[in-house]
Amino acid sequence: TQLLEQSPQFLSIQEGENLTVYCNSSSVFSSLQWYRQEPGEGPVLLVTVVTGGEVKKLKRLTFQFGDARKDSSLHITAAQPGDTGLYLCAFRSSNTGKLIFGQGTTLQVKP
Amino acid sequence: DAGVIQSPRHEVTEMGQEVTLRCKPISGHDYLFWYRQTMMRGLELLIYFNNNVPIDDSGMPEDRFSAKMPNASFSTLKIQPSEPRDSAVYFCASSLGRSNQPQHFGDGTRLSIL
């Protein structure tokens, strides 16, 4: 069974700080997606990474897919209160085609 | 553009009662997914449909849960009878195609079974 482990589970930082959250597995993925979920809302797709070593940037967010396609990281530069939310990584199972989510990292950015 | 619409947003009911959650996917999307989110288990896929046909319901926890999609613009998830352990946030999502296409989530139904 493929599992995604996200770390840390919780992160509370001050506005302006940088942070990195991780998504790891022992399995190889053909692609990985990152979602952000704000309180009271559903998850929203941020990015899909496909190629090993790929780096994608979305404003202050930088996403990296590991060379071996087993892990991914999300780095936020100069975090703002609007970045507060639950960050979820997800992969599509090659066996079932289902989207499998990690448990997520809850980020709180204090003003 | 209207996103995925779920109703009700909140539901509080006593155990044993029937609960029906509703979802209107984004027009033109051919896949519809039902998820459940809890603190303990995270976001879990319950069932998904392709072109209104249930494809995989292996995530449905028990026979008390059932889902239907009578047409391309409407789906229901029903729990009968409901139990306190069913309390969770239930999300509906839709996508155009499957592969790496994004799933668009509704804002969820927060269900509390007393």
Task: Describe it.
The complex is a heterodimer of chains A (111) and B (114). Chain A contains no helices and 11 strands. Chain A has strands spanning 5-7, 10-14, 19-24, 32-37, 44-49, 55-58, 61-65, 71-76, 85-92, 99-101, 105-110. In chain A, strands 2, 4, 5, 9, 10 and 11 form a 6-stranded mixed beta sheet that branches. Chain A has a 5-stranded antiparallel beta sheet with strand order 1-3-8-7-6, with no helix packed on it. The termini of chain A are far apart. Chain B is an all-beta fold. Chain B contains no helices and 11 strands. In chain B, strands 2, 4, 5, 6, 9, 10 and 11 form a 7-stranded mixed beta sheet that branches. A 4-stranded antiparallel beta sheet of chain B has the order 1-3-8-7, with no helix packed on it. In chain B, a hairpin with an 8-residue loop joins strand 9 (88-95) and strand 10 (104-105). The chains are: A mainly beta (111), B mainly beta (114). The interface between A and B is medium-sized, with 21 and 22 residues.
